[in-house]
Amino acid sequence: MPGAAAARPSKTFIGVGIEFILGLSHKILEWWVSRRKSKVLTLAERQIDMAMETVRLLDEASGIIFGGSKGDPMKVIEKLFAEEEGIDDVRREIFEELSRGELQPKDREDLMHLVKRIDVLADCVKDSARDLATLRDSDLPREIQALCAEMVGNLKECANILRDSIEKLGSDVSEAVELSRGVDKLEHLIDDAHVKSKSLLIKYGEEVNPALLIILKDFADHLEGAADVCADTADYVRILAAGASPRA
Description:
about 250 residues; mainly alpha; 6 helices; Methane Monooxygenase Hydroxylase, Chain G, domain 1
């Protein structure tokens, strides 16, 4: 009738509308969380790739200084330093994303552990590069040069296998675990070379400038430290793999 009050919506209609809005909000939240998680994982993968690049650059500079390869070692080392600075920027961006709290606490904790380990690895590589830059014009005994080059080469292989192990966590847990054991084997080789380096420092103690002996010791220590971080991260890969494995 004209002038009559407009019909009020039924309670059933209102209830359905609220359920629709709540369901839509939940879907938006799920999309936002998955988007955030995807962004964090993308950043973490980028950080890992950048850390592996620092190891590759260290091996390249080592090949020029100890192996006689052509090139300017300082240009390579400067690239390494720039890459390491980039890793710091990515790490801060990852922590900023994680601080928003959209991820599950366990996922956030796992990513933080992994990010911190990769960051420490890059720091060890940077310290090794600083030592290498100081040694570049030194006339070192061939035996010492060969051992240094061997340690860097093994670290490069160790880091590459670690990256493969981490990547396999998302597709083949058993393969990830198997690769992580390869990291341990190379870490042991670097550890043995580290012990041998001490003997060489004593052997050539009267022949080599004492200041260079100190730098060589630091160089070997930093390489061994980087290998230890790789092994520690491989242990964490096995922990993550155990959590991802189906239980009977």
